[in-house]
Amino acid sequence: MNITKLIGILLIAAGGLGLAYGGFNYTKETTGMKIGPLELKVQENERVNVPVVFSAGALILGVFLLVVGRK
User: CA 10, CA 23: separation in Å to the nearest integer?
Assistant: First the structure.
């Protein structure tokens, strides 16, 4: 398997996940307050939205790379 096919498969997978979920969540931990040896940690949930255009573009580009890689 050459690198073009591998990148194509990864782009198809990423595009499909982007279309299915529309983004992803992660938890950000920060120090809210620090008094001497005591620390108050704050966890915030953040969401990153992936635009549909980017997901569809990755999917189309992945298919294109697989088709070109066959020849």
Answer: 17
- Residue 11: phi, psi to the nearest 5? -65, -40
pTM of the model: 0.71
What radius of gyration, in Å, describes the C-alpha atoms of the chain?
20
**Two tokens, residue 54:** 């980017």
Residues 8-19 have pLDDT tens digits of 999 999 999 999
Cβ atoms within 10 Å of 58's Cβ, excluding its own: 21
- The maximal CA–CA distance of the chain, rounded, in angstroms, is 66
The structural domains of the chain, with segments of one domain joined by +, span 3-70
Other CB atoms within 10 Å distance of the CB of residue 67: 10
Contacts for 30 with CB less than 8 Å, ≥ 6 apart: 41, 42, 44
